[in-house]
Every structure is written in C-alpha cells, then in structure tokens.
Amino acid sequence: MIFKVFYQESKAEVPVRECTNSLYMEAETEREVRQKLKDKPYNIEFVQKLEGAFLEYEQNHDSFGLEN
Q: Are 62 and 24 in contact (CB under 8 A)?
C-alpha cells in the first residue's frame, strides 16, 4: 500500500498549513510508516492511505515519488 504523510520539518515548530510538507511511502500499515520515520525530526500531522482514484490522482503529479 502507498501512504501520503503530511508533516512539519521540525517537532519544535507549531503546525502551520502553509509550512506542511508531504511525502509518499510504501508500507503495509500506518504503524509501519510511522516506525520508518521515527528517527527523522518530523512532526507527523497525518498519514493517509492512498488507493483507487486518490492514488491515481497523486501519481499523475510531478511531485509523486516514493521514499525508502
């Protein structure tokens, strides 16, 4: 499955929508995504599972790229 992760660059920053970044990650569960990112300094706001038309829409954008 592919997940879209919305995050802030630093855990010390207050979440502000204009500063929210996103990345795409392949994993079996949301828990696995969070485990893979636990060593990063990210403040994870939301993890969204992408499938069907939502995944197709995201894949059609230039910014789509899977993180390891």
A: no
The answer to whether residues 54 and 31 touch, using CB atoms and an 8 Å cutoff, is no
* Cα dihedral 23, 63, 27, 29 in deg (nearest 10): 60
Dist CA 61 CA 47 (whole Å): 19
User: pTM of this prediction?
Assistant: 0.86
DSSP assignment of 19-41 equals G-EEEEEE-SSHHHHHHHHTTS-
Distance CA 59, CA 64 (A): 6
- CA dist 55 and 49 (Å) reads 9
In this structure, are residues 3 and 15 in contact, taking their beta carbons and an 8 Å threshold? no
pLDDT in tens, 50-67: 999 999 999 998 788 888
